[in-house]
Amino acid sequence: MGRDETAAVNRLLIFDFDGVIADTEAAVLQSWQELYREFGQELETRWWVDNVLGKPAGTIDVLAELEHRLAAPLDRPELARRRQERETCLVDRVAPRPGLRELLRQAREQHCRTAVASNSTRAWVLPHLRRMELVDCWDGIRCRDDVDRPKPDPQIYLRLVELLGTSAKNSIAFEDSPLGVTASANAGLVSVANPTSLTRDSSFPEARLRLDSLEGIGPAALHELLGEPF
Q: Is the peptide bond before 127 cis (omega within 30 degrees of 0)?
């Protein structure tokens, strides 16, 4: 391996799953919005972004919020079952975000390592990576199950950097939520905000760069972020 290749192996690109690799969040939100509308309620995108997006599943009881708005109890098991079925139907149609496959291809050509850092569980992330034929694209995968403290704590990023034998300053994190950007920035990584339709109005003060799309990103852009050859 040449000198340039050895240097590139010490570079690391880390991708959040829900939102960056695939926009699953929009599909999950749609399943909840459809349920709320059955009861004449509107689940606002802003409420979802502020209270749910980016956090581990189950952190916020979205059915309890509906009961609160209705001031009445609901048949929770039945509603949860129906909503979950609808979520599965919607999420199984979600494809990788535009530009992701090309960016991964370029990373391989540049001998750069890639990894996934997700606040979701392995039981959620791995089947979707397999479905999209992306499960073998990574040098490391760390999920909610693998850490004691989820994002916005930086632990998941610190563990990936240690696992892959590189340094935070040589690593770039792609995140779609302010919570994720905070986690990567606090770990000392170069943070790139890559918002979705749900987070495009959010502020990312800790991000080094904001990219509304992964399309067209090349070695030159990554070189500029890291401040040295990529």
A: no
Mean pLDDT value across residues 154-178? 96
CA atoms 220, 222, 227, 230: torsion sign = negative
- C-alpha span between 150 and 119 (Å, rounded): 6
For residues 229 and 223, the answer to whether their CB atoms sit within 8 Å is: yes
In one-letter notation, the amino acid at residue 174 is F
Question: Hey, what are 165's tokens?
Answer: 């034998």
How far is residue 28's CA from residue 91's CA, in Å, rounded to a whole number?
A: 7
Asked if residues 18 and 25 have their Cβ atoms less than 8 Å apart, the reply is yes
User: Which is more confidently placed, 227 or 172?
Assistant: 172
By DSSP bridging, strand 12-15 and strand 171-175 are: parallel
**Closest among 173, 182, 102, 116 to 144, alpha carbons compared:** 116
What is Dmax (Cα atoms) for the chain?
Answer: 67
- Are β-strands 209-210 and 113-117 bridged in parallel, bridged antiparallel, or unpaired? unpaired
